[in-house]
Design goal:
The complex is a heterotetramer of chains A (682), B (107), C (166) and D (391). Chain C is an all-alpha fold. Chain C contains 7 helices and no strands. In chain C, helix 1 runs antiparallel to helix 2 (25-45) and helix 2 (25-45) runs antiparallel to helix 3. The longest helix of chain C is centred in the middle third of the chain and has 25 residues, at 49-73. Chain C is globular. Chain D is mostly helical and 391 residues long. Chain D has a two-stranded antiparallel ribbon. In chain D, helix 4 packs across helix 10 (255-279) and helix 7 runs parallel beside helix 12. The chains are: A mainly alpha (682), B mainly alpha (107), C mainly alpha (166), D mainly alpha (391).
Chain lengths: 682, 107, 166, 391
């Protein structure tokens, strides 16, 4: 049975992390091998699990194997841990381990010069382990543990170059911001536990994600006309929003780009930020409870929770895309695009159910990590230059990077037919276009798609076209970095095939339905039109971008094209729509004030009291001392004198000659024995 | 043919004699090493007693006396090692092993 | 209970006396091996093969040699010129005599209570081994601990200061 | 027929003792056997001396003894006569009594050792329940004799030799004992007769000797090393290192006493080889099941002589160690390895039949061997050595 050994998948990298932590700094090669080896092992296991699930599915029975164990038992309420093997976790496992492995290999090249190589890989494999833990967990608590651990490693890795104040600040920001979400998440967990009495998702009918518990939750009524299910769902969604940077908690993600690029690729593009989406997918039955379909298939969006998810997702998608237009830092652009793509996923979940969102998650994981690694390669080649305006014409210098990057970019824009991004995004749009769905999100998402194409074109033409505007000439990256790019590029294209309307293999797999191939999938009403529209939108974005920025190379100091036409919009976009500033004047200001108050209290009030008490005790101590000196000591000394005199007397007998002692001993024995026997006689 | 009604008594007598001899040696010889040897003799006398009592005791199969003897042999080895080590250490400080000279422990 | 007994007794006691009386330390050491051998023979005569051989192995093979080493290390191998008995040897002798008197008296007093000839106990080495690791396993462990401690202690005590401070 | 040949000595003894009254027979049998041993082994000793001198001669491109008798076969006898007729010199201020006693004690204790060796089916003088222990006890008491010899002859070479000999005997005796213990753990008996007969059965053609097991092999190697050291043979022959101390503890001996020492050394070799044969090489059992018709005692003596030849061979091959090397080797390599071998033996005992225990045990032993060799036996560069009393 595969599920029984599933725990090995997260355990191995964590153990490896522990081992690496014990290594000395110069043992770079060994640490790298440990990390990569452990993750490859996990990858193999994941593939085995995946194969197991697929085999089960092809035989016509949807696999959902759970292994549960009780961790603590207090009275009747039990804190349970457990892991689950179902299509969702299987897919995620493969994705995380595979992308992770590629990124590990890539980092050996990227971090080559860094002297904290071993520490880096320690953190990386710790992260991998924690993430896998999140993926397989069948218990809210276990998931939360992994969740927090992931957050911690993210914090550590963002602040990996803690010498840079920016990095340290970014790390703190990420940690605190996500914490805000996690508080709500924890509340949600506790509430759920209080309501259903179990932490397990699936437990043969008694889990919290299964009919019985859900029915119970629906009957409960919380505030604002929400059912308990809806309220809990919203709380959990707040946590998810924190992790995967949904508005308004997205602010940390762009700053997180201060970390090393592989980290950005692995954690802040492919896996961790997707954890939020995954979480929603995992608790989807809860979110969709009340929509009368708790089996996780699409056509939902009819519960409050899901509506909120949808709107937040769509809003974030557009919002972040807008900001991305105004950025000049290559990684920041990608970061904002990540945020907006996450928005897409959320919207997909909200509108089209698990399959739609998850499909976009998977494809996005591949092409976005591809883009990030490509960006890393570019930065590497341009000697740590990150400003797109100081690059240009790199397609000649770094051909491999250029090709792969272009593929990733097209996939992200959703270029028709050949790229996975198209199919996944199209799925979302299709879901949004359902006749019975609200229309608002749909238009937002389309607009987002346009923006996506636009800013990606802008970035690419800045970076790869035109003439070289940097100082030192660029160079292509080593093989160890380009090969993963190629592999990822392949998948960025190929993955689309499993999600076409003609052959919705992925969706069928997740929803446990049989997958068949027929062309009539395209013939659904309005589908063709929709596809054409989205393609048109994409082409429009590409064209617009090329028209504005294509292959003309302005000097870095020259104002942006948009800036000339609409300065104030540009300013707004460049300054990230002032969200940070907003926080600055509200939240942070409040905290500063409160801190000052607390400080004043400390100094004046509590400090004074403490000082007074201390004085009192000092006085008392003085009193005691006098007592000691003049009363206790005197008598004690006298006694001691007496003792020493007596000791002197006795000591005479001890003349240090062993045999004398022996003799005395023997004599004593004789005498004693004699007395004994004599007294024993009648 | 022997003066004792019981063989055990004979062994006990021999043991007592040996013990006394050892004691005499321990109490009279000057050389620390010889004192140690004499003490070993006393121990052996005790062992003889144990074995004899085991042999003629009511329950030889319980092996009590035998075990006592074996353990005391083992302990005696340790005792000899430590004792000689001490003597050597003492010799290193006061270039002698003559007990009449060694009075460092004088109170 | 025959002439053999008296022979062995004579041997043993002679060895013991030699230990006490001889002047040369090394002779004493050799004499004590004789005494040990005699005791081993006693053990054999008492059908305690194992104990007897253990006695030889430990006392003649180890303790005697150890003593000899100690003697040589402390330059005691030459016959001492001065008095070998302590100044007040009479006292010691008297006390020893007292002890012997006490013991002998006790034995003679209780002869009547002592058992007579009894059958040879059927005890094999296997039984001893089983007892050692069975009923007497705790003492065995403790002895092992003791021996280890003694070894280390002896080494540390006898080690040369230079090495210790180094 | 085969059994008659096999048991011929037993039959002979019974036939002779048959003339005596019933009561005396066991005692008489023992006396007879002892007499046989006392006569037989000196003869073997002569043969071995001849072998050694011839063999060493060959190894050193010499002819070796070739004057007295065919191939100098009678040379030992000539030597014997010479040493008997030689004047017996006792140093002036030697301790006469001890000086005289030393060789006697040596030879006697060594001879005692033979009492428990089974030299053939039913061919043992006394089958003691604790035979192995007895053997070791006797071996231990030879040290006293050596010390007596060295100390009594008031000669610093002798004393040094004796101290070296005793020190090395004590160190290696521990190993000898422990490697024997591993055999005892498996065979479950201290009686050499039982141990020998425990190895006297075959799987197919091959014998189940203890040497053909991982622990047995390791144990035997350690045993062989320790035995070489016990008998002060090269490369452990520091006690009589001619180049350093003239002839060690028997420098001051001459004539018959010296001959006794010489005899003692070879008898020790015989007895220890006999022990090794009994413990590891299956005692008197035949090497192949098809050869069982050959009388058992032939096998025993054949094995003993072979191991004697190996002794000689080693002497012809290996250079002499230095004292500190000797001690380091004993305490830092041989002893720990033997202890680990004990553990492995226990493992073997409790893992039960099957190939796993072979794999596991041999793996552990090999790993430990390599590790210790790498770590423990690294050559340390010592400064100038200093001899001192304990001041």
């Amino acid at each position: 049975m595969v599920a029984r050994d599933l725990w090995l998948i997260p355990a191995v990298p964590i153990v490896a992390a522990g081992l690496i932590a014990l290594l000395k700094q110069p043992m770079r090669r060994l640490s790298a091998w440990l990390a990569i080896g452990s993750l490859s092992f996990s990858l193999l296991l994941s593939l085995a699990a995946f194969a197991h699930v697929v085999a089960g599915w092809i035989n016509g029975n949807a696999v959902r194997e759970v292994v549960n164990l009780t961790w603590i038992q207090v009275g009747v309420s039990r804190v349970e841990l457990g892991w689950i093997l179902d299509p969702l976790s299987a897919v995620m496992l493969v994705m995380v381990t595979f992308v992770g492995l590629l990124i590990f290999i890539y980092s050996t090249g990227y971090m080559e010069q860094d002297e904290n190589f071993t520490r880096f890989f320690c953190f990386l494999s710790l992260f991998a382990g924690a993430m896998l833990g999140v993926v397989i967990s069948n218990s809210m608590l276990m998931l939360f543990m992994g969740w927090e651990l992931v957050g911690l490693t993210s914090y550590l890795l963002i602040g990996f170059w803690y010498q840079k104040p920016a990095a340290a600040a970014a790390a703190k920001k990420a940690f605190i911001t996500t914490r805000v979400g996690d508080i709500f998440f924890l509340l949600g967990i506790v509430w759920l536990f209080a309501q259903t009495g179990t932490l397990l998702f699936y437990n043969h009918g008694s889990g919290s994600m299964e009919g019985l518990a859900l029915a119970g939750l629906l009957s409960q009524h919380a505030a604002f006309g929400l059912t308990a299910a809806g309220a809990i769902g919203l709380l959990i969604f707040a946590g998810a929003a924190g992790k995967s940077g949904q508005f308004p908690l997205h602010v940390w993600l762009p700053d997180a780009m201060e970390g090393p690029t592989p980290v950005s690729a692995l954690i802040h593009a492919a896996t961790m930020v997707a954890a939020g989406v995954f979480l929603i997918a995992r608790v989807y039955p809860l979110m969709a409870a009340g929509a009368l379909l708790t089996n996780g298939s699409g056509l939902a969006g009819t519960t409050t929770a899901l509506i909120v998810v949808t709107w937040v997702g769509a809003g974030t998608a557009v919002f972040a895309a807008l900001i991305a237009v105004g950025q000049n830092d290559i990684k920041r652009i990608l970061a904002y695009s990540t945020v907006s793509q996450l928005g897409y996923m959320m919207a997909g979940l909200g509108l089209g159910g698990v399959a739609v969102g998850m499909f976009h998650l998977i494809t996005h994981a591949f092409f976005k990590s591809l883009l990030f690694l490509g960006a890393g390669s570019v930065i590497h080649g341009c000697h740590e230059e990150q400003d797109v305006r100081r690059m240009g014409g790199l397609k000649a210098d770094m051909p491999l990077t250029f090709v792969t990057y272009a593929i990733g970019m097209l996939a992200l824009c959703g270029f028709p037919i050949f790229f996975s991004g198209f199919w996944s995004k199209d799925g979302i749009l299709e879901a949004a276009h359902q006749p019975d769905a609200i229309k608002g999100p749909f238009y937002l998402l389309v607009f987002g798609a346009l923006l996506t194409a636009f800013y990606m074109t802008r970035q690419v033409s800045y970076v790869f076209f035109g003439t070289w505007r940097g100082h030192k000439p660029a160079h292509e990256s080593p093989r160890v970095m380009t090969v993963p790019l190629a592999i990822l590029a392949f998948f960025a294209m190929a993955l689309g095939l499993i999600g076409t309307p003609a052959w919705p293999w992925f969706r069928a797999f997740l929803e446990g339905r049989a997958a068949g191939f027929d062309w009539r999938g395209f013939a659904e009403p309005g589908l063709m039109a929709l596809m054409l529209t989205s393609s048109a939108v994409v082409f429009l974005g590409l064209g617009l971008g090329w028209w504005l920025y294509g292959s003309k190379s302005p000097s870095p100091e020259a104002p942006d094209v948009l800036e000339k036409d609409a300065p104030w919009i540009w300013a707004a976009l460049r300054d990230r729509l002032y969200v940070d500033e907003l926080y600055g004047v509200t939240v942070i200001a409040f905290y500063a004030w409160w801190a000052r108050v607390a400080d004043w209290l400390d100094r004046r009030v509590w400090g004074g009291i403490v000082a007074a008490v201390a004085k009192l005790f000092a006085l008392w101590a003085q009193l005691n001392r006098l007592l000691d000196v003049y009363w206790v000591d005197g008598s004690f000394d006298k006694a001691c004198e007496e003792l020493s005199i007596g000791g002197g007397l006795i000591a005479r007998a001890q003349n240090g000659r062993v045999q004398i002692y022996l003799r005395i001993l023997a004599l004593a024995v004789v005498v004693l024995a004699a007395i004994l026997i004599w007294s024993a006689r009648p | 043919m022997n003066g004792f009604a019981s063989p055990l008594a004979a062994y006990l007598m021999v043991a007592a004699l040996l013990f006394a001899i050892g004691l005499a040696g321990a109490l009279t010889r000057r050389n620390a090493i010889l004192v140690l040897i004499s003490i070993e003799l006393m121990l052996n006398a005790a062992n003889l007693n144990f074995i004899a009592f085991w042999r003629y005791g009511p329950h030889p199969e319980a092996l009590t006396g035998m075990m006592f003897a074996i353990f005391s042999i083992a302990v005696a080895a340790a005792e000899a090692a430590v004792g000689l080590g001490l003597i050597i250490a003492i010799y290193r400080h006061t270039q002698t092993t003559d007990l009449d000279e060694i009075k460092r422990m004088k109170g | 209970m025959g002439v053999l007994f008296y022979l062995i007794a004579a041997l043993t006691l002679a060895g013991g006396l030699a230990v006490v009386l001889l002047k040369n330390t090394v002779h004493c050491a050799l004499a004590v091996t004789v005494a040990f051998a005699g005791l081993a023979l006693f053990f054999l005569q008492l059908d305690a093969q194992f104990a007897g051989f253990a006695q030889i192995l430990v006392y003649i093979g180890a303790v005697a040699i150890l003593v000899v080493f100690a003697i040589l290390v402390t330059r005691g191998s030459t016959t001492p010129v001065g008095e070998v008995f302590s100044s007040s040897w009479l006292v010691g002798l008297a006390i020893a005599a007292g002890v012997f008197a006490l013991f002998g008296w006790a034995v003679l007093e209780s002869v009547w209570a002592l058992p007579h000839e009894s059958a040879v106990p059927a005890v094999t080495v296997r039984d001893i081994g089983n007892a050692l690791v069975g009923r007497y396993v705790l003492p065995l462990e403790i002895v092992a601990l003791l021996l280890t401690a003694a070894t280390i202690g002896a080494v540390i005590v006898a080690m040369h200061e230079k090495e210790r401070t180094r | 027929m085969a059994t008659t040949l096999d048991q011929i000595f037993i039959l002979l003894r019974d036939w002779i003792t048959g003339f005596l009254p019933q009561a005396w027979r066991p005692a008489a049998g023992i006396v007879l056997g002892a007499a046989t041993i006392v006569c037989l082994f000196p003869a073997l000793f002569a043969l071995a001396v001849w072998m050694e001198r011839k063999g060493l001669g060959r190894m050193q491109n010499r002819l070796g003894p070739n004057r007295v008798g065919p191939f100098g076969l009678l040379q030992p006898i000539a030597d014997g006569i010479k040493s008997l007729t030689k004047e017996d010199i006792v140093p002036l201020n030697a301790d006469a009594a001890v000086h005289l006693l030393a060789p006697v004690v040596l030879v006697v204790t060594v001879f005692m050792g033979f009492a428990v060796l089974p030299m053939g089916r039913n061919m043992v003088l006394v089958d003691m329940d604790a035979g192995l222990l007895f053997f070791f006890a006797m071996g231990a008491s030879t040290e006293v004799a050596v010390f007596m010899a060295g100390w009594s002859s008031r000669n610093k070479y002798s004393l040094l030799g004796a101290m070296r000999a005793v020190a090395q005997m004590i160190s290696y005796e521990v190993v000898l004992l422990l490697s024997g213990v591993s055999v005892v753990m498996i065979s479950g008996s201290l009686s050499l007769v039982k141990i020998a007969s425990a190895q006297n059965h075959y799987t197919g053609w091959l014998p189940n000797w203890y040497i053909f097991t991982p622990w047995g092999l390791a144990g035997f190697i350690m045993f062989a090393i320790a035995a070489t050291a016990e008998t002060n043979r090269s490369p452990f022959d520091l006690p009589e290192g001619e180049s350093e101390l003239v002839a060690g503890y028997h420098t001051e001996y001459s004539g018959f006493k010296f001959a006794l020492f010489f005899l003692g050394e070879y008898l020790a070799m015989f007895s220890i080889s006999g022990l090794g044969t009994t413990l590891f090489l299956g005692g008197w059992s035949a090497p192949l099941s098809i050869l069982t018709w050959v009388p058992s005692w032939i096998w025993f003596f054949a094995k003993v002589m072979v191991s004697i030849f190996v002794f000689i061979w080693m002497r012809g091959t290996l250079p002499r160690l230095r004292q500190d090397q000797l001690m380091n080797f004993a305490w830092k390599f041989v002893l720990p390895f033997t202890l680990i071998n004990l553990m492995v033996t226990a493992l073997w005992r409790f893992m039960g039949e099957g190939w796993e225990r072979w794999a596991v045990c041999s793996l552990i032993l090999a790993a430990v061997f390599v590790l210790m060799g790498k770590v423990g036996m690294r050559r340390e560069h010592l400064g100038p050595r200093s001899y001192r009393y304990a001041e």
